[in-house]
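Subject: two folds for Thursday's group meeting

Dear M.,

Sorry for the delay on this. The cluster queue was jammed most of the week, so I only got both jobs back this morning. I'm pasting them in the order they finished. Each block is the input sequence followed by the predicted structure tokens. Could you check whether the formatting survives your parser before we put anything on slides? The first protein is the one we discussed after the seminar.
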Amino acid sequence: MPSLRQSSKTMLTNFLLTLLLLQISTTHAAEDFYKLLGISRSASQKEIKKAYRSKSLEFHPDKNKNEGAAEKFAEIAYAYEVLTDEEKKNIYDRHGEEGLKQHEQRQGQGGGHGGFEDIFSHFGFNFGGHGGGRQQREQSTPNVNIPLRVSLKQLYLGDTIEVEYVRQTLCVNWQECMKANQECQGPGIKVRMQQIAPGFVQQVQQRDERCIGRGKMWSSNCRVCPGGQTQSEKIDLTIDLQKGMYPGEPITFEGVADEKPGMTPGDLNFIVTQESHEYYHRDGDHLYVTMEIPLVDALTGFKHEFEHLDGHKFVVNVDDVTECDHVMRVSGKGMPRRGGRGGYGDLFITFDVDFPETLTVEQKKGIRKILGGRGSDEL
């Protein structure tokens, strides 16, 4: 019998603790976390920590004896815990308090049940099932592709580019603008039953941008979000243009596209677009250039100094006779190789021999004499 009383006492204690946690959780939902800390939605981690220190000192039970101070202190601590955890913060920003609770249930109970099933599960009661059966695959807003125009020199050297990007972010208090609507089956999806004949009904799916989730609809003319679901936000981005990147290659910022209630932000992709160069032409890791040489250099040899994309100079020596459209390969003078291969591609030089338009009689005789050609009288 003593063991039975002890077990009952333990169950009662656990039940009371669970009700207290439920009460605190309900209190959290009453006020937006950002508003609770007195910060904006775009506040940095440093600003969040500063606001938390200030608010926690103000409502600390040892210093603030006013009624409700302890509960306020607990709310502030919970808000700080969520907003300083990147994963929880992202879930809260996209799905609000309810989405955060579902996430915590899935983490703690492998999917969870919600409601009273969560309460009684603390005492060992199992209602069956694993939950999550109605969970929908999370949708995302469209990805955004923006051309990034860069020079061949920038692709050879690599570069860091600072840009400003304007996107749509959720209204800070968007959760207060939701109302229940059972016809909403997901973001932008509305399903209703339509009678087509006596005793026959048809399920009709239609597009409705007011639907922001299952059973949730946006309330038009909401006072706390007068501008609608989203608002413009200007953000600064640093683009890391790596050496040797190829035209058409994307530089991706995950989750930076427009936000929308009930949806994950898509990705922002900057697509490398290579501008043409005055002299050099690129194909993969190799560079190509065409050089015009006079006939005398083609016959007698020459040396020529080239200036590369980064300004360094190198000399090419040709001792033999150069045919028209001859291609010479210079190893290691191409573009930096991508994909961890290291080194550089090659430079291919095409020689275009410039023949003189006319020759004097003396020049012709001199050339015949040097080259041993036969005169017209010998033909």
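Second protein, same layout:
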Amino acid sequence: MITDTTTSSSSSSSSLSSPSRSTTVLAIECVRGTAKADEWSGGLLQTGDIVEELRIGDQVLRGPFKSGRSGVQKLLHSAYKNQITSIVVRVRRGRDETAELNACVVPEGSGRKSSASYVLRAIDDPNYAVRFFDRTEAECFELQASRSSRIQQALITARLQDGYVAYPWERKMALLSVPNSSSFLSILFLPKASERMSTRYNDVEDSLARSNAWLNASQASGVPIVFKNVQTESLLTKISGETASSTVSTSSLNDLSNLANASLYGFEDYHGVDIGVVRTVRLWYSPSGGEQRVEVGIREGDTKLGFAFCRSEEGFIYISSVVEGDDDAPSARSGLCDLYRDAVKASKLLVVSRINNQKVLPWIVAATGGIRCFDTVSLSQKLSLHRHAKVSIILHVFMWEQESVSLRHGSPRRRSGHVRSPQYQLPPPSDGNVQQPPEHHEEAVASSNGTATGAMVRDALVRLNDGNIVRDASFRLSDGRINDLTQDSGSAGESSFRFHHFTLPDSWV
């Protein structure tokens, strides 16, 4: 309970002229204010207030107090040991004004019970704390009269406090659309080597231009993504020899102006080792319509999944065709066929962003220009293993902005033949199923404009394994030359997937 009575300025003046102003009294000092700074409103105890009475439990003490602050501290220590922490303090301000505080006794500092110093914390606001001091009455009156200047000083010296708070990460992570995986998508562009020996690199502007070209080409090919942000990132590496001598040096502040557009600069550490700083470009993007989760369930007797996929030049994996006429195929039951038809109508590629929650998007462009992405052969093997093991496949696909997109489970629309994307096509099997070709089967391969051509004939070596077609083939062009499928050394350190002057057929699963 807090009580407050008003007083006139004449009362304060008479108090200041009192002959007893040199008497030592027990005074209040504010240690910490309330959350709303109510200690300056007059209702709470303020620095300079004179203690008139203490009620500790059933014990009532009135001033003057024997031994002053040290005597009161002994009483508080004894009460705290006896688990009596409730205290009521009544103070005098000026001549007639009084105030009262209900508080509890707590050790000052780290909270050790053996501490010899105690403070009082307000019961209704634990942030507010005061302690006792020995002062003369004249000093107390001066502090009371200087309230306006002290509040201005408190305003100047007030500082915002910070600290750590606990956060329920496990519960919050469960709110993600994909468990333990972010929806932030990006690709990193390393500076392109300008020489065959990779001792010099193009500037940052070139990396920005290549990232812009990659984004524009992806959107033009039908990948439903939108630009979000672009930034530079610095990677540390050890350099030596000609690379070290050709980089911009940062030995002094005068060299900083040369770094504005440099993609590689160097400096020496304390041991004389040349350290290179590579400035890369990270492009952030997102699907224009978010990601859609599709669960492809596997049943006993399923001999195929009913869809094929390809990889675009920019490194995206997308559904290139689906089997029509088979309502019981996993692709039809899951609604993947409907999503694919919607993508064809919207002139978009149905890009697969995740397989079983693992991202299968391109993630880095090497200094030699190669895009590191996922191999369609290993993806085909992975999905076929799911079918053999009768384990469902969780796909996430990129969606695009449109009025209404929904999965129509159990009611796929029927059409004759295959439905194909506008850019990459295969001729439809006559019965709606993928047929096993003979040893020398001629098959038209999709051209870049989406029309089937006969300029390329595949000389396929076919291995049959549980009804799966495994194409292990070279390609014979129309002039009779053989063009082999080769693996080249990838710029990102692993084998990449480079094909010479022909379009690969879809990977059916």
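Two things I noticed about the second structure. The longest strand covers residues 225-238. Residues 27 and 133 are 5 Å apart (CA to CA).

Cheers,
T.
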